[in-house]
Design goal:
Elements: H1 2-14, E1 19-26, E2 32-34, E3 37-40, H2 45-57, E4 61-70, E5 76-86, E6 95-102, H3 103-112, E7 120-124, E8 130-134, H4 141-150, E9 157-162, E10 169-174, E11 182-188, H5 189-259, H6 266-275, E12 283-292, H7 295-301, H8 304-322, E13 327-332, E14 337-343, H9 349-371, E15 375-379, E16 383-385, H10 389-399, H11 403-406, E17 411-413, H12 414-420, H13 430-441, H14 445-460, H15 467-487, H16 492-496, H17 502-507, H18 512-535, H19 539-551, H20 558-564, H21 569-580, H22 584-602, H23 607-613, H24 619-630, H25 634-645
Parallel strand pairs: 15-17
Antiparallel strand pairs: 1-2, 1-6, 2-3, 4-5, 5-6, 7-8, 7-11, 9-10, 10-11, 12-14, 12-15, 12-16, 13-14
Helix pairs in contact: 8-9, 13-14, 13-15, 14-18, 15-18
């Protein structure tokens, strides 16, 4: 058993090169077992003192500072000893173990640590006694270690400047080792200051170098960035200037979208008002429409750029005058129109009408005085919500069409037109058309112009006619006039010139008087063409005309007329139509009806006798042809003649 313990102690001692030897002490017998052999059967006096010190401290282990011991070869070595009781985990004291460590090897470990050549490093016991050291500079380390040992342990690493031992030194210490030792280092302040001065100088030099490099880099970077930044700033200023320049156009676009019903929500409207910086409310709006009178004449006189300036001026004049009482915005609509959005807000409706009437008159007078042309102004109804302003605009656009009836240079309100003109489904003076066309085919320009004058007066005196009905009426009359021209063997290009579009010209007429004057010129030229055709001689046709004039009161047939000039009926019909612009039957019917009209107005003969006297064996046929040509029956025609006489 004793040999086994001795072998175990040797094994422990040989397991680490730092261990010089290991001793086991038996508490009861005082026997000692050493890793280098049986030392003694009882404790030596020095060992008893160590054990007594351990027992007096009440600790389970105790470190003994460096002291000299003899090794197995008889050499003096410095040893550090750790002594502790056995067993550690129980209160009984069966014995003690002492582990002797080479201080020299511990010192070599300190020397192998990285450091500067001026720093002293110490390992000391808790009471300040030196255990091991690495000394580079001469120092009174005993005083130092005693002072550090007296500093209360806070469980952290600390440092301070020590001036008590001559030249100042920086002392750093730590008491956190588990065995209670202290690790202390001291470095001369002169060395540290010298090192710091070097670092400071290097730092200053590096900073100056960096500043110089920074200045150079800044110069090149600023030079490379200046032009893009300048372009960016220039572009920013340009965009701002462009926005300010285009702000009127943007506002005009907003009004145009509003009147086209492209902005449907009050939220979107409010956002646009804020963006455009417009001080308009969302309630109470009327739209006024300003239309340039006789715009085609201006187009023939001025260039497109001049006309655009005129329209811009109209909007400015309107905004300046109406803006005295109401917030307003203008926008160009059609080529000859400018719309003005008027914010009447809470102004009473009866007062709005009077104020707008006054301002419209002032706008019209200012335009005539400054721009030297007249305008017609219309106004729609008032709507409370701004998003409904397009309804007021639609009414104004509808109402301004009635300048066709009312004339130019007028102010027209939508409610006035609705009250005065209820409208009818259709109206066309067919009888007047028949008379006019008959005169036109015969080349009678004054008579056809008189018929046109009578038709125009009747249109003007009919208050229920809408502008659509009036345009339809004159378009249909133009259809009949051109058909008569074709029957006379002519064409639009032949009479008016190639590239003339009569229907387009008619659509450009703005008033009934303008339509009348234009259509009268058309009739005059066609009548002149028909009269010229009448002067052209054809002996065969002239002979047939004379025969028909002499015999139309009898039952005259095409064959009899053709036989009178020695031609077959088919060939004769063709050359007659080419020369006269109408058929043989149409000419014969016209002769008979003109004679019957004279009898209806100048005799007391009844309808039956008149029909037989002009060559009709059947009275119903006579009445049918008369109504087809004149638009009324013979009896109605006679009544009209009688009324005119009264």
């Amino acid at each position: 058993m004793l040999n086994e313990m001795k072998d175990a102690v040797k094994t422990w001692a040989g397991s680490n090169e730092l261990i010089q030897s290991v001793h086991l002490f038996a508490a009861q017998t005082g026997a000692v077992i050493s890793s280098d052999g049986m030392a003694s059967i009882s404790l030596q006096s020095g060992q008893e003192n160590v054990l007594e010190k351990l027992r007096s401290t009440g600790k389970k282990e105790l470190w003994i500072p460096t002291r000299q011991m003899m090794d197995r070869d008889g050499n003096q070595v410095s040893i550090i000893t750790l002594i502790g009781k056995i067993p550690l985990a129980f209160p009984e004291e069966l014995g003690y173990v002492a582990v002797h460590i080479y201080e020299e090897k511990l010192s070599r470990m300190l020397e192998s640590m990285e450091g500067n050549p001026h720093t002293n490093t110490y390992i000391a016991a808790a009471d300040g006694s030196l255990i091991s050291s690495r000394i580079q500079e001469r120092s009174d380390y005993v005083t130092l270690l005693t002072h550090v040992a007296g500093i209360p342990d806070s469980g952290e690493e600390h440092y301070y400047v020590d001036k008590s031992r001559g030249a100042p030194t920086l002392v750093a210490y730590s008491k956190t080792l588990e065995n209670g030792w202290m690790l202390v280092s001291e470095t001369p302040m002169t060395y540290l200051i010298r090192k710091l001065s070097y670092i400071r100088n290097v730092t200053v030099a590096v900073c100056l170098l960096l500043i110089a490099l920074g200045a150079i880099l800044s110069y090149f970077l600023s030079k490379s960035m200046y032009l893009p930044f300048k372009r960016l700033m220039s572009r920013s200023l340009s965009l701002e200037a462009s926005f300010r320049t285009n702000l009127p156009a943007i506002r005009e676009r907003f009004v145009s979208n509003l009147l086209n019903n492209k902005i449907a929500s009050s939220t979107e409207i409010q956002s646009s008002l804020s963006f455009l910086n417009l001080s308009l409310s969302l309630n109470g709006y009327v739209v006024m429409l300003i239309e340039i009178d006789d715009y085609p004449a201006l187009e023939r006189t001025y260039s497109t750029s001049d006309l655009n300036l005129y329209k811009f001026a109209i909007g400015n004049i309107a905004e300046e005058i109406i803006g005295e009482s109401f917030g307003c915005l203008s926008t160009e609509r059609q080529a000859n129109q400018c719309a003005v959005l008027v914010n009447v807000q809470d102004t009473p409706p009866d007062e709005v009408r009077a104020i707008l009437q006054t301002y419209a008159g002032q706008v019209s007078a200012a335009i005539l005085n400054i721009l030297k042309f007249s305008v017609t102004i219309s106004a729609g109804s008032r709507y409370e919500c701004m998003e409904d302003a397009y309804l007021s605009y639609n009414e104004a656009a509808e109402v301004i069409q009635y300048k066709l009836v009312l004339g130019t240079n007028k102010v027209i309100f939508s409610e006035d037109v609705r009250l005065e003109r209820g409208g009818i489904d259709y109206y066309y003076p067919l009888q007047m058309e028949k008379h006019l066309i008959n005169f036109l085919k015969n080349g009678d320009g004054p008579a056809s112009a008189a018929s046109l004058e009578q038709l125009t007066e009747e249109v003007k005196q009919n208050p229920r006619l809408t502008y659509e009905n009036i345009y339809r009426l004159y378009n249909r009359l133009l259809d009949a006039v051109l058909e008569a021209l074709l029957e006379r063997g002519g064409s639009v290009g032949q009479v008016f010139g190639e590239g003339v579009f009569l229907y387009r010209e008619l659509a450009g007429m703005e008033t009934i008087d303008a339509i009348h004057e234009w259509l009268e010129r058309v009739l005059t030229r066609i009548a002149a063409f028909a009269a010229e055709q009448e002067t052209m001689t054809n002996p065969t046709v002239d002979k047939a005309l004379a025969y028909m004039q002499h015999n139309f009161r009898s039952d005259l047939s095409l064959e009899a007329i053709a036989d009178s000039v020695g031609l077959n009926p088919a060939y004769f019909s063709r050359i007659f139509k080419q020369y006269m612009g109408k058929t043989v039957v149409e000419h014969l019917t016209q002769l008979r009806l003109e004679e019957s009209k004279a009898l209806l107005g100048g005799s007391t003969m009844n309808i039956h006798d008149i029909a037989r006297s002009v060559g009709y064996n059947n009275t119903n046929s006579y009445i049918r042809f008369f109504k087809k040509l004149e638009g009324i029956t013979p009896g109605e025609y006679r009544k009209q003649i009688d009324r005119r006489r009264l």
